[in-house]
Design goal:
Blueprint (H helix, E strand, L loop, with lengths): L3 H8 L8 E9 L3 E5 L3 H7 L4 H6 L1 E5 L3 E6 L2 H17 L2 E8 L5 E7 L7 H13 L4 E5 L1 E2 L2 E2 L8 H4 L3 E3 L3 H6 L12 E3 L4 H13 L3 E8 L4 H6 L24 H17 L4 E5 L12 H10 L5 H17 L3 E5 L12 E4 L4 H8 L4 E3 L27 H5 L13 E8 L7 H8 L2 H10 L7 H17 L12 H4 L5 H11 L1
Parallel strand pairs: 2-4, 6-7, 6-17, 7-12, 12-13, 13-14, 14-15, 15-16, 16-17
Antiparallel strand pairs: 1-5, 3-4, 3-5, 8-9, 10-11
The structure holds zinc ion (ZN).
Length: 502
């Protein structure tokens, strides 16, 4: 049985559900919004919260005509205004008192701009939805083999030779044999963000209290870098650069010159404390054949080529730290040694996050078991081609970022990732993001409570219609299969459960 208080909170229909709601009679016309930033009572109410939560906390006292917003910061006022805006969009603003603050400090979405270049208008539109849902992190995957998407003044060939390709769909590009192109080629697909566009996006995000975390991927997923600048590729016995390397060469000084130069440009554009340096899925295939990699191994006394990845990550980490920032990397970077100031983003399930947490690292949880939005959200036969296992709204909603035994104070939060190998258009990207993103917003903000997936689904459906009215292309919950709705991931499990219930 749900407690009476929780019943009131959920009756509000808000996503994320607030911490507290005490209803009173009637609804509000919200004619008059009064902001109080120095309320003693409110300061007392948030006194014991962690600093990040205190910063975003707010209290709304909603009367028939007047709404009083209490918060310590402009960010808290903004969160409160988004609550009112969402209630208005859902149809009515009930009178009462809402007291609210976030559970986690990192509530994010990652968008892959490399496999499909989506452009500033798309990102702004998604940030509008994110702000309505109290997200505060947009992680941009700005480069990968399929395209370099950020202007560099110091290495202009990254865009001139690496931002355009043959094949608008990632899979067509794969079929082309990973052919790059140039902007003037009529068959070229691609693009990149200019520095001015990125600064504009950073400002747009800041107005919504969203931090954009830029990712520059290394040493793997870097075919576009080694193609544009062969000095960053491995070197064969005869002194020639290896053609078609997916990893940059951790033995070559050219690699560090390029990466550090690009990261300096990135840090000039993005004020984010965290800079993501990728670190996943380096193939390391060419490293054993490379004279520079072998020389680096000899100098460092390494016995395994994988140690070269650790060398590169630590060197880049020190560079970023010297600029007053910190790195985030995918969980592979934990395996080859990295300083404790590095944040580990767990994507290969939750095990990397658990190990990193036990070793004292801060972690962001993005397990592909629950938070990969390029995975199917319903049955393969009714959905556009995707990856992975069935990752329905209900399945996403079932996720809890703090696994048993983890130190919650080191769990920064959670993030869903939208990789775009099978997502060729902006409409399709939106379709994969919403409403599953609602579940991430709620898990990231609302207190840990017993979850009722059917109740959440009702709220998600209401908010989905709000987004549709605003022009978003969302997944249609009305056509969701019984299997996905029940939260099963396979037919076998679904059929077994049905038999047991009969
Ligand atoms: Zn090499």
């Amino acid at each position: 049985m749900k407690s009476l208080l929780l019943g009131f909170i959920l009756a509000l229909n808000l996503i994320p559900a607030p911490v507290e709601f005490k209803p009173s009679e009637g609804t509000s016309t919200v004619d008059n919004v009064v902001v109080r930033k120095h309320s003693f009572g409110f300061r007392k109410a948030v006194r014991d919260l962690p600093e990040f939560a205190r910063k975003e906390a707010y209290r709304l006292t909603i009367g028939p005509r007047k709404v009083v917003v209490e918060a310590r910061t402009d960010e808290g006022v903004f969160r409160a205004r988004k609550t009112i805006e969402q209630l208005q969009a859902l149809g009515e603003v009930p009178c009462g008192v809402i007291f609210d603050y976030p559970r986690f400090r990192h509530r994010g979405l990652m968008i892959d701009e490399s496999r499909t270049f989506k452009g500033a208008q798309f990102l702004k539109k998604q940030m509008d939805a994110m702000a309505l849902l109290k997200f505060n992190i947009l992680h941009l995957h700005l480069d990968d083999s399929a395209g370099w998407r950020i202007e560099s003044e110091t290495y202009p060939d990254l865009t001139a030779k690496g931002a355009f390709r043959i094949g608008a769909h990632y899979m067509e590009w794969e079929k082309s044999g990973y052919k790059y192109s140039t902007q003037d080629d009529p068959e070229a697909y691609g693009g990149y963000y200019t520095k001015d566009e990125l600064r504009d996006l950073v400002a747009y995000a800041a107005e919504r209290y969203i931090t954009i975390i830029p990712e520059i991927e290394m040493p793997g997923h870097s075919l576009e870098v080694t193609s544009a600048y062969p000095g960053t590729s491995c070197t064969l016995e005869d002194g020639t650069p290896f053609k078609g390397a997916w990893d940059v060469c951790p033995g070559s000084e050219e690699t560090y010159k390029l990466l550090e130069s690009v990261l300096t440009e990135v840090m000039e554009i993005f004020p984010s404390h965290y800079i993501h340096i990728g670190g996943d899925e380096a193939s390391m295939a060419v490293w054993p054949k490379c004279i520079k990699c072998r020389e680096r191994m000899r100098q460092e006394g390494y016995t395994e080529v994988s140690q070269l990845q650790g060398y590169l990550v630590r060197r880049i980490e020190a560079f970023v730290r010297a600029h007053g920032r910190s790195i985030i990397g995918w969980d592979e970077i934990l395996e080859t040694g990295v300083p404790q100031s590095a944040v580990i983003q767990s994507w290969r399930g939750i095990s990397g996050g658990i190990k990193a947490n036990a070793a004292g690292h801060k972690v962001v949880m993005s397990p592909n078991s629950h938070l990969y939005f390029d995975y199917y959200q319903d049955l393969i036969r009714k959905e556009p081609r995707a990856w992975g296992e069935l990752t329905s709204l209900r399945h996403v909603y079932s996720y809890e970022p703090v696994a048993p035994g983890m130190d919650e104070t080191l769990v920064l939060g959670l993030q869903a990732n939208l990789w775009c190998e099978w997502i060729p258009t902006v409409e399709h990207a939106e379709y994969m993001l919403w409403p599953r993103g609602f579940a991430v917003a709620e898990i990231g903000w609302s207190p840990r409570r017993e979850k009722d997936p059917l109740e959440f689904r009702d709220r998600a459906d209401a908010l989905r219609h709000v987004l549709m009215d605003m022009g978003y292309n969302t997944f249609d919950l009305d056509t969701e299969s019984e299997l996905a709705r029940s939260g099963y991931r396979t037919f076998d499990a679904f059929e077994r459960a049905k038999k047991q219930n009969n």
